[in-house]
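User: Sequence for PadR family transcriptional regulator below. Tokens please.
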Amino acid sequence: MGRRSGILEFAVLGLLRESPMHGYELRKRLNTSLGVFRAFSYGSLYPCLKTLVANGWLIEEPGSAPEEALAATLAGRRAKIVYRLTAEGKERFEELLAHTGPDAWEDEHFGVRFAFFGQTSRDVRMRVLEGRRSRLEERLEKMRASLARTRERLDDYTLELQRHGMESVEREVRWLNELIESERAGRDQRDGPTGQDRSQEQERDRSPELDPSGEQDQSGDTGGLPRHRGGSRPDPSDDTAK
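Assistant: Structure tokens for PadR family transcriptional regulator:
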């Protein structure tokens, strides 16, 4: 299975895990929620759906009342079909969700994987984020080396374009650093021997501990997302951030 069809399978199974949908609804969600599929067509979606049905991961159900389906048949129209995830399909999605290999870090795949982070375990999220950061740091190093070698031969506009590309990658690396920091903070709080109980006691006593500098500790679980400290987070599916 190719990379494109593999990530499409993952996205379709993930969306159908939320709720059953017919083809038009699926295509709309792929276009609006997952930016990598903005230029997506039915010509690619329906073969994927048929394959998933043949594998036993989806089932097809009538999408309207029986009388409406009959009316559509008599009128020569195709009745709507709703696709529903099977138990085997849920297991397949869980298997794909746990995958943390290099494909999960690539430009096209990472945006889709990130869209389903809410259903992904913390350890898997950490591995994907750290892998993505490592990949971008390697790319950034190559971009800097290339610019150093060629900048004397570039005109002003090409040079500015190169700088813009580097800044986009640097911005995503900073964003990933914030996400990784928050994931680690959440894990430390969860795994700490007295973290949760101590927080509850402090709330009851209204006497929060102070750190050595005398300031109140502001750490806490942010659900895997960093506290926003100004600026905008890059869209993982934005081509300019790759």
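The two ends are 24 Å apart (CA to CA).
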